[in-house]
Amino acid sequence: MAEKIEELKRDVAELQSLEAQATRHRVKDVLSLEARKLSSEIIKLQEQLNTASKTPTPTTAAPVKRYQVKLNNYAWDQTSKYVKFYVTLQKVQTIPAENIVCRFTNKSLELSVTDLDNKDYIFTINNLLDGISPEQSNWKVKTDMVIINAAKVKGENWSHVTELEKKVSDSQSQKFKADDNMDPNDGLMSIMKNMYEKGDDEMKRTIAKAWTESQMKSSTPS
Q1: What is the 3-state secondary structure (H, E, C) of 51-88?
Q2: What does pLDDT average to over the chain?
Q3: Distance between CA 172 and CA 78 in Å, rounded?
Q4: How does pLDDT run across 2-61, given as a tens digit for each residue?
């Protein structure tokens, strides 16, 4: 743009020189008009150049990449109205309140903490043991902790947090009961069978010998 301005200035100077040499008024007027047009164009270009030089060049800042961290550890308690979850998170009280959101459904909850020490945290529990009311549920931010209050639909006591935990617990209880009712001889047979299947050749020969002797003794009349 600067080169164009200099070129126009030279054109204006030459037009003015020709105007000074001209003797006829019509020629002088034409040369003068053209010189004024070019002078106006020079002024516009200079203004554009000045504006461009004053406008700061925008700098593109590199976006800050945040990592998502899944939270798994928590403590829980309950009242007749709420199941309470205590999620420990250092300095959580120092970030804006809008960065901490908990979403509820009738059988799940999800806590989202955004931009805490350049990290995003998420805490999720699905398939809760019983139904909760999303409208009546809430959360509170304390020092280094978020307390989630999941409102019970029923005022019943929860034995576990999730359906899966209860199924695992019930399955283990049934296994223990079955073990208690097992015949001692059946238990010994099961142990010997397991040892035979997993043992080496020497172990298998020893167990086979012991089994044979046991069978011979049991078949011998007393």
Answers
A1: HHHHCCCCCCCCCCCCEEEEECCCEEEECCCEEEEEEE
A2: 82
A3: 24
A4: 788 788 788 878 878 877 887 887 777 787 778 788 788 888 878 787 777 766 666 666
**What percent of the chain is predicted at pLDDT more than 70?**
73
Q: Decide: pTM greater than 0.70.
A: no
Q: How many CA atoms lie within 13 A of 104 on its CB side?
A: 18
Strands (E), the chain: 67-71, 75-78, 82-88, 100-104, 109-116, 119-125, 132-142, 145-152
What pLDDT score does 27 carry?
76
Calculate the alpha carbon distances from 28 to 20, 39, 51, 209, 221 in Å. Answer: 8, 16, 35, 133, 149
Which neighbouring-strand residues pair with 124?
A: 110
Report which DSSP code applies to 92: G
Q: What are phi and psi of 133, to 5 degrees?
A: -100, 110
Cα 103 to Cα 71: distance, rounded to the nearest angstrom: 15
Taking only the tens place, the pLDDT of each residue in 177-213 is 655 555 555 555 666 676 667 666 666 666 676 666 6
Contacts of 129 (CB under 8 A, 6+ apart): 158, 159, 160, 161, 162, 163, 165, 166
CA 211 to CA 198: how far, in whole Å?
16
CB atoms inside a 10 Å sphere around CB 35: 19
As given in the structure block, the two tokens for residue 137 are: 């549920």
Alpha-carbon distance 113 to 96, whole Å?
Answer: 10
